[in-house]
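Limitations
The structure tokens in this dataset are predictions for the assembled complex, not deposited experimental models. Users should treat interface geometry with appropriate caution, especially where small molecules or nucleic acid strands are included. An illustrative entry is reproduced here so readers can see what is and is not provided.
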Amino acid sequence: MTEDTKPEFAEVTHERSFSRRGFLRNGLSVVGAMTACVGALSPLRELDGDDIPSVEKFLQRHYKEMNGTEMASALERIRREVKKRWDIDPVVRDVRAKDGVEFVYALNLSRCIGCRKCVHACVEENNQSRSPEIQYIRVLEMPRGTTDIEKGNHHYDRPTVPDDDHFYMPIQCHQCADAPCVKVCPVEATWTEKDGITVIDYDWCIGCRYCEAACPYWARRFNYTKPEIPAADINPEMSYLSNRPREKGVMEKCTFCLHRTREGKMPACLEVCPTGARKFGNVLDPDSEVSQILKNKRVFVLKEEVGTLPRFFYYFDERYPRTEGGLDGEGETK
Amino acid sequence: MKEYLRFLKRCFRLSFIGDRRYIAWMTFLSIVALLGLNAYAKQLVFGLATTGLTDQVSWGLYIANFTFLVGMAAAAVMLVIPVYIYRNKELHDLVIFGELLAVASIIMCLMFVVVDMGRVDRMHHMLLRFNFPISMLTWDVIVLNVYLVLNLHICGYLIYCAYMHRTPSKMFYIPFVFMAILWAVSIHTVTAFLYVGLGGRPFWNSAIIAPRFLASAFAAGPAFLILTMVALDRFTAYIVPEKAFLTLRNIVTVAMTINMFLLGCEVFTEFYTDSAHSASARYLFLGLNGYHGLVPWIWSAIAMNAVALTILYLPMTRRRGFMSVACVLLIVGIWIEKGMGLIVPAFIPTPLGEMVEYSPTLNETLVSLGIWAFGLLVYTIFIRITVPVLSGRLAVDRLYLRDAVADLPWSAARLSETKENEGSAS
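Predicted assembly:
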């Protein structure tokens, strides 16, 4: 700035601020603008304590980067939060994948009767929001003679199932080996574990819902609002990567009940199934039931053409000789 | 440095000075922006449940606006090419207006992405674990931010040089200008790939999306610039060369023609083969299984685009009025096509064949309008500063700020008031 310009410019400033009318008007405008801003932001007063992250939570690192003590304090924090909100003492653990295990699901379409017991058992096991209810499993009522899911009925409501003219096709996360949801996540908040289960770090997800758009099986769900679960319905057996309560604004999905299955139990949807249509196990073990099914049954995957290599297989029982036709033959027996 | 701060201070003060129309326009925009802020505060409290989005249709108005605005940001580059490659000097100043539009558009883009996020408090996770180069969204974050910086640098530098009466040093901006040309293409391509890369959404998973996106962007952006030029020509002392209008009109016409051709290609592919993959297109253009939510939108968009293109081809667009009408029709048409027509139908039916329709809620609409108002506010301020700088009324050796506004009709009223005040003060 040159010396001679400075005072003259300053003079202009003075001229303006000493004008009383101008001062009053400017002052009023500033006050008015600030009041309007504060007014516009006033709904923020209702922000929940949980919505504003504590320093500890804000600084919490990505699941894969946390060491033992950091994980322990994260689990302790989750315990505290559950205790505070529902007055329940949960068991919160970090259940890790085991070597030599790759989980696979097989579903017998000849047996499924469409009772939707799996849908509800899943909600209870995994602490999903009850209001609005989030369900990981969608059962389609399919007309015989097609496996085109666009022909399925999502909202069938019959006094009794099964209906003779239909078969039933439950769909949940297919735990793809080449998962598009994992590819698209900008912050690596979701990934596939070594035992084949795609998981989400709920504390890392930024809620952009790109994974939800990418999933060809419509397996992902978003918490559009704060999940509500009555205290009586909380499942206190929790794990970090699966069924601990989620927050508003994050994604969630089926994890093959990893807190159960990694410790040798079966998923909740399988245990509740009244017909034994659901089979689950380690495909790396040649004697497991799922290995036998993959070897001996006529197995198919949904939407094979999208090339995501699902670990979820469907099959029909071979009730008729092969010569009478496979899937189509089923429809013509009536 | 000190001089630069003084420049910024003068710019800040200048943005509050103008005639009644200017003040009214700015007040209006501020009010709408504040309404949007209020709506966003509600969204922060209650979550995205305040929007019409569902697990079935998980992207809607926000992402639609984002997509459209990425397109608008192309306006700059379509002017840069004639100026710097074909050395058309008359349009030199207009490049700056184009780049400022790009800056304002990118700011709006980033805001639309932010309001779409479920957890804004975790934005820093992007810096800590960035899934690059696998996730296309990370590419988009990079290209948009770099494009913003590039354009801020180019027009910031040129305007400041004009203010200081310096001849801009070519080394400091020409390389960036050429980079910005490539970059403008990249922001569209990457944003298109964001959608195209999803194998589970057949409506998007088509190679034509990226070229169509470019074509429509190169029509909408320059069309918006034409409207800006018409406004500048009318409301300020700034005289826009006739040639600028003609160049812009030609760009819009060619881009729009290509866009309509590509639309035809797309419609043919979807409907002639009639495969199961055309369900979304069927829903969009004809309605599916009794659901018709988007049909009136897309047909009105196509009608608007067709009318606009027809007007553009007729000699009557030499008249500003007709040209403006064509531009407005075209912008609205492309907004619908890129928003309601490109984003929403990809979710209907869902990958499992469920039909759930989407319509934005009031809160969501207010947030979107608020962002638009904020963006226009920013753009108006940019123009408010640029016009007097380019015409030499605001410069380092002009001591009184009011010099900057003296000859502009939009500030005449306010100026006389200032004089009055000075009189009463002394």
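Some entries come with short summary sentences. For this one: The radius of gyration of chain A is 28 Å.
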